[in-house]
Amino acid sequence: MLPWITLDTAKIPDASLAGGEGELRLKQRGQEFSIMLGTNELMNSRLSGSEEALANLGCVRIAGRARPDVLIGGLGMGFTLRAALTALGADARVTVAELVPAVVAWARGPMAGLFAGSLEDPRVTIREADVGRVMGERAASFDAILLDVDNGPEGLTAEANDSLYSTAGLGMARAALRPGGVFAVWSAAPDAAFAQRLKRVGFSVEEVRVRANRGRSGTRHVIWLAVKGGGGDAPLPRSR
After folding, report:
1. Which of 106, 137, 154, 177 has the fewest beta carbons under 10 Å from its own?
2. Cα separation, 15 vs 30, whole angstroms
3. How far apart are CA 113 and CA 218, in angstroms?
4. For 105-143, how does the pLDDT look when each residue is reduced to its tens digit (9 = 90+)?
5. Half-sphere CA count of 235, side-chain side, radius 13 A
6. Helix, strand, coil percent content, the chain, rounded in steps of 5
7. Does the predicted TM-score (pTM) go above 0.85?
8. How many C-alpha atoms does 60 have within 13 Å on its Cβ side?
């Protein structure tokens, strides 16, 4: 078997990190890529099923909207982006917010084959910024927000990511959506408390289990589909 080769490393900006680890590592073995944080594998190019499901499940719920505006939180290995571009029409706009600039560089460099030209799609804008900041800049603007940041609500990389999954963060996501918009969230594992927070800020919520790969066996991940109703934003509770 071919050995893993470390291609590059990257510090996570402004991160207070679990276990004292602050460095992402991009590794390659043959045609396979892996992004690691310490001993934890954050993503692998062989496992794309749940990231693609995040896009497909989110985009199907806004099908038929003219000029849909979609925000993707987390570039990763591009599986969510590619699936969203396939599901959306030519009039769509897709903004990808990626916190770590090196991840964007990897997408344009050693992992370019995985992205298959999707970064050059005229519908796509890449923002090297925290997705929470992008959401906060645009009230009632997005038809869908597809969030694949860290490991889900129980994060591994940065404590700062916790704010995205807090009551305040979820309220900000809801405020950034147009009426009827969908907030789709990927997670490595179930989280009953997170589902309750989604409901508490005024979303209607569906939880879907999907396979990490495209087959019928293997690890299951979770995708929450939270839909904003047609009224105004609900008042937010003070606690998480």
Report:
1. 137
2. 31
3. 25
4. 999 999 999 999 999 999 999 999 999 999 999 999 999
5. 2
6. 30, 30, 40
7. yes
8. 6
